[in-house]
Amino acid sequence: QVQLVESGGGLVQAGGSLRLSCAASGSRFVVNTLAWYRQFPGKQRELVATITRSGSTNYFGSVKGRFTISRDNAKNAVYLQMNSLEPEDTAVYYCNANIQSTSTYRYQEIWGQGSLVTVSS
Length: 121
Fold this sequence. Notes:
Helix content: under 10%
Number of strands: 11
Oligomer: single chain
């Protein structure tokens, strides 16, 4: 019953910055790869960035050079720093975690509740 809770979404002007946060709560689990996705209206959810337990990162599409993903293993948290935001970045952003139970050894994917980011022109 591990949960991801997001915060930090909101309204920002084009060219501005915003930071999203996501923290995992619960017990007896290990967090593996963390990721951020986003979903535009009427489109499928798409991958934005990933980060492994050791801190290796990958970025996808138009966010390269503008967004930075990071994590704090002690807090079981992941962050997305978004700079030089454009109206085209307006979407619902979701954090995602691959976790393993330390009692049953079962792997599963869990999702945050979603955060709306609106970039005005």
